[in-house]
Design a protein that fits this description.
Helices cover 22% and strands 24% of the residues. It is an alpha+beta fold. The strands form 4 sheets. It has a 7-stranded mixed β-sheet with strand order 1-2-3-13-5-15-4. A 3-stranded antiparallel β-sheet has the order 12-6-14.
């Protein structure tokens, strides 16, 4: 059986892939077909992909250089469950494999994943693809929602498109966590440089498809040249526009699913589940992007 991709939504946003075992070495034609699917759909779902960490990382490298996980970067070695810095621990488990307590700081920080965001938009060179493997899923809840940022841009009125075309936003991990009660000082002196805002275009052009896309995220704290309150209200309005049900695909996880999404053309968020009683063990690899989004030179974070 050869690789095939079918749409998961009437609009054609998100595709389901069959006929391939990603845990085995791929040939160039298979890699190219997945890349082409990403250009078309933005989100691809693969079922029954029984990865371990090594095979997930090997597969991910077909698409570029792996990023170091920001969670691993900003945590202490004794607090990390996974040994490889490139493997993001998207779980509610501590290093001993036990459920994190209600007051656990890493658990509380991870609640920020329930905000609409684009992975690593707080880096000067933002992420390309994210690849999330479901090793253990809760009985109910814990879905992931994805929003089609190309369709959201297309649906804007012409006046709004003209207004936002050349705007530059500033992103920081501290901004998203501020929304759930954390302050910059909570990250420690050693991590303050990692919280420095970086600049990105609000409207990105996708050279592969010729389409424009909104580049939105909970990590946005300001727009260059705008008063902060006005900037944040515009970003809030645009996010509300972008996450209408007609633009959203909801993924209900099965064990051993792999979902790949393009952070340049989508936003996503995790949904609530009972993380004090149910295990949700997900492992994410992230592909580093290929450049800054604005003409200004900025140091890559």
């Amino acid at each position: 059986m050869s690789l095939s991709i079918g749409p998961l939504t009437p609009s054609g946003f998100a595709g389901e892939v069959s006929g391939i075992d990603l845990t085995r070495p791929l040939d160039p034609e298979q890699v190219a077909a997945i890349d082409a699917g990403m250009d078309r759909y933005g989100v691809l779902v693969f079922h029954d992909q029984r990865f371990d960490d090594a095979s997930q990382m090997a597969f991910s490298r077909y698409f570029g250089e792996l990023e170091v996980s920001s969670g691993a970067e900003m945590s202490k070695a004794q607090d990390r469950r996974l040994p490889r810095m490139e493997m993001a621990d998207i779980s509610n488990l501590d290093r001993d494999g036990k459920l994190r307590a209600a007051s656990d700081r890493m658990r509380l920080t991870a609640l920020g994943n329930r905000l609409w965001h684009s992975d690593a938009s707080f880096r000067a060179v933002p992420a390309k693809y994210s690849l999330l493997s479901a090793r253990n899923v809760p009985g109910t809840g814990g879905n992931t929602e994805f929003a089609d940022m190309r369709a959201a841009h297309d649906a804007l009125d012409e006046a709004t498109k003209a207004e936002i075309e050349d705007l530059i936003t500033e992103h920081s991990n501290a901004c998203s966590r501020e929304q759930i009660g954390f302050m910059k000082a909570d990250y420690g002196e050693e991590n303050q440089l990692k919280l420095k805002p970086v600049r990105h275009r609000l409207v990105r052009h996708d050279p592969r498809t010729g389409r424009k896309t909104l580049y939105l995220s909970a990590h946005i704290g300001s727009i260059v040249g705008w008063p902060v309150p006005e900037a944040r209200m515009l970003i809030r309005d645009l996010i509300e526009q972008a996450v209408q049900r007609r633009f959203v695909y909801v993924h209900v996880w099965r064990q051993w699913d792999l979902v790949i999404w393009d952070n340049r053309t989508t936003m996503h968020r995790a949904r609530r589940y009972n993380d004090l009683t149910d295990v949700r063990d997900m492992r994410r690899t992230t592909i580093r992007g290929d450049g800054v989004t604005v003409a200004q030179v900025q140091e890559a974070a």
